[in-house]
Design goal:
By secondary structure, the protein is of the alpha/beta class. It has 9 helices and 7 strands, in the order βαβαβαβαβααβααβα. A 7-stranded parallel beta sheet has the order 3-2-1-4-5-6-7, with helices on both faces.
């Protein structure tokens, strides 16, 4: 039986109709929170998320909003306040049109970069500014990023999204300081390659190559992560015992970010 340490807490998870966002919403519900589940296109998928939340013995509601539009973010937060009266947890997870922004830096257009800017940096700014206004003191704000895109430079097609994920991680540090008088913590989680996520939108040959690469040992656990494993990290940060952790970017990737590409695997693996 799971510990209900988030009972009487209210959460909003953006982009929770599927993938990692859905996993987070369900995990928070399992821990006792009521969850507002946000979507932009697929209402049926969002209803499925809400049904899974209810199976965990919790409840919530669904809200359609494009988080890249500040006015829609305002309306979303108003809906949260109307339905919940308050907010304790914000998870900024929505990723927008991911595949359409996979363009290397020397080919990326201003329009493509600006779209990534709206969907990541601006969306995070709007969500944190608006949600913090109705958030209880001691609340939790968590952004979702991607370590190879925000810290490295080799994943060239991820240029526009990666640059803006890096901006989100910088913003996290500023938000953490600004909200510290209210004991609201702000952190960013970087999942690794995860099943039932954007991975599954890639061509099958790309998916298989990535799975094989990690299973060789480039993830020391020799596996791909699950949405439940990523969600478990997010839920742990929402525990009241983690209030001393703020302004940090954490890689929840099973150790993949620890591996050294300059050194053969047989030097690295136990």
């Amino acid at each position: 039986m799971s510990v209900k340490y988030l009972e009487n807490k209210f959460a909003l998870v953006t982009g929770s109709s599927r993938g990692i966002g859905r996993g987070i919403a369900i995990k928070l519900a399992e821990r006792g929170a009521k969850v507002a589940v946000n979507y932009i296109v697929n209402e049926d998928a969002e209803k499925h998320t809400l049904n899974e939340i209810r199976k965990k013995g919790s409840d919530g509601f669904i809200i359609k909003a494009d988080v890249s539009n500040p006015e829609e973010v305002k309306e979303m937060i108003k809906a949260v306040q109307k339905n919940f009266g308050k907010l304790d947890i914000l998870v900024s997870n929505a990723i927008g049109k991911f595949l359409e922004k996979l363009v290397p830096p020397l080919q990326a257009t201003n329009a493509q970069f600006e779209e990534a800017f709206r969907e990541h940096s601006c969306a995070y700014l709007s969500c944190v500014q608006q949600a913090s206004g109705i958030m209880n003191d001691g609340g939790r704000i968590i952004g979702i990023s991607y370590w190879p895109g925000s810290h490295g430079g080799g994943f060239l097609p991820y240029f526009s999204a990666g640059a803006n994920k890096a901006a989100m991680e910088s913003m996290t540090r500023f938000f953490a300081v600004a909200l510290s008088p209210r004991n609201i913590t702000v952190n960013t989680i970087c999942p690794g390659i995860t099943e039932d996520s954007v991975l599954n939108a890639l061509p099958p040959e790309a998916q298989n190559a990535m799975r094989d690469w990690l299973q060789q040992g480039w993830n020391p656990r020799k596996k791909i992560g699950s949405t439940e494993e990523v969600a478990g990290v997010v839920a742990a940060i929402c525990n009241e015992d983690t209030g001393w952790l703020t302004g940090q970017t954490l890689a929840a990737d099973g150790g993949a970010s620890l591996m050294n590409p300059e050194v053969p695997l047989f030097f690295q693996l136990p």
